[in-house]
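An example makes the point: we print one protein in full, the chain in one-letter code, the fold tokenised, without further comment:
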Amino acid sequence: MMFRGLSVWAVVLVLIDSRQASGHVMSESVSAVLHQTNITRLTAKAIHAAGYHLHRIEHLSIMDAPKLEHIAVEDLTKMPNLKSLFITQAPRLHRVAPLPSLPELRTFIITTSGLLEVPNLSHVHDNKKDSNSLAYLQAIDLEGNHIKRLSPHALRVRADQVSLNYNLIEEVPAFAFKNAQISKLSFRGNTKLKHIDDNAFAANLLLRQLDLSNTAITSLPTEGLQNLETLRIEKTPSLKYIPSIYEFQRLQKAYLTHHFHCCAFRFPERHNPTRHKLYETQIAIMQAKCQQRSEEERQRRSLEPIKVYTVPQNTNDSLEDDVSTATTSDEYDGNIMDEYFSDSGSWEDDEDQGQFHEPVNNTLRIGSISAECGNFSISPRKVECTPAPDALNPCEDVMGWSWLRASVWFVIAAAVVGNVAVLLVLLTNHTELTVPRFLMCHLAFSDLCTGIYLFMLAVVDLRSYGEFFNYAYDWQYGVGCKIAGFLSVFSGQLSVITLTIVTLERWFAITYAIYLERRISLSAASKIMIGGWLYSFLMAGLPLAGVSDYSSTSICLPVESKDVGDAVYQGSIFLASALAWVTIVGCYVQIYRSLGGGESYGRRGAAAAAERRIANKMALLIGTDLLCWAPVAFFGVTALAGAPLVDVSHGKVLLVFFYPLNACANPFLYAILTKQYRRDLMTLIARTGHCNWLVEKYKLATTPPPTAHTNPSAPAQLMPLVDSVTYQRSQSGQSQSKDTSEVPL
């Protein structure tokens, strides 16, 4: 905390000086301490009753005063040597009247009390005896009170540090610090502070450090902050936009909340192109002016007569003349600066009072004069900014590379068009709903959600091309990113569950083709999928409830792990994908073995070709699942273990080419390329009455040649993808071939 050390300093100072007053020993100065007192009014009489001589008190401390309600400020003038006033834990002290002239006062501290407004301190140093030495307050600390508003003129003071931390301030009005000279100002912990007027800090050109951490501000004014050196706005996620670096002429360090605000400081030409253009224009004008001045100086020197210098006999005299000349030049420059900034006054005080901070304006003067011609930097200043862009939040667009930006649209087209085609055919078909159709609908819907997620990222990437950090707040902390992240996690988990159930159902249907009691019924499949939907909703909803976060990256995935809950959440997602893949591999191995795969007892011809086709299809299905889940899971586990092997920039390649692989391949592998889907599609086309030529062509292609056992006038029944092998192994199970035909490999 920026100024918390002030209170500690005051207490330590009080304890040291109180030793002199503990035995009522008369000395030059004392520290008056009233600890756990029951006084209701702080008056000169109460202090005198405690055994202190008013004219000797330098430090007055009131600690733990539960009944204190009023301070007789006029009695403070009876303590001419008072340098510090420290009050803490006075919950009934709601207001303090305007303080009178207290020429020696240096610290004013009221913490953890009941103040409702800032006391008026503008007249504390009105009657300073030494007019050549401007007095100032070292610290004004009003931390931990109940201050809701800033009174007009209350803080028009000369102070090194002003702390209003952890109050209830809701607004900083215009010109709240007009004619004040404050070096360090802190509003940390005012969680209700939402609005700061554009002119709130105007006319306070000495402000060097500003702390607005733990507030609810949405914007930061720039008027009066030209000479700011240190800016703190940590733990303030509501801050939407950061001003251009060109608005802060002296900013050196910035402690912010969002990574993309530091990107704005790093790339000012993209953050505010208009302001950057003005900066370049100013630089060009300065360069032209300095070049012209340089030419005039060379011409002037060329016209000067050549002077002959004689070496003086006394070397010391020469050195003294050189020093004298240099001193005269320095004095001339100093006179110019003093004249230009004559309204700033002198910042030096007497030795007893110490020295006020060095004005920032002095630095500005020296810099502007010495760097006016040719000694300035053409490139923008570098600001030490945190949190710096890292692997999870780089200063780049959503898609990063141009080729990735173009490729994602092909992936989106394949995922959206393929899954919409599957849903359209399956949902409009009026045939009896079977388990494979039911599961294919769920699989197509989950994969369609993945395509919509990628479409949302691609649209945001197009809108924010080249300057994403200007749109980062609206996207990452808006509803859009939450919806995109929810769709991503939901579709991924639902797809994993559905693929696993599809594989198990296929394993039951093929391995136990002749056992009707070993099939997954539609009722059982419905119950399983209800559980899958609930699980997917839960996993996708946890980041919205605070477990991990969709707003941690521009791609809206919960990849940042801050605590144990986040690690458990991410680990459970990776574990679910791993178990699903192992289950799918095991089921396909059993299916292949049940169909006679791997046996070598003279199988030839059509049966061997069917086995090869089945093996190839199984390898394709398993391979797509592996390519989809394995890279994401591997790099996710390494990141979870604290040793990430890939950053977000390269992880986007996984996002575009591996993560949506199932969403693109599943509609083709499980539906569009199967005989059952083609039959359903032709049935739908025939029902519409259009493209009859296509329907007739399909019938001719699927009608087998007439035999003695078939009716030449009617098309033969379609066999499943595993027709040759299944038919040889289960001729007696022809009554179940219709079910088997709807679970293609």
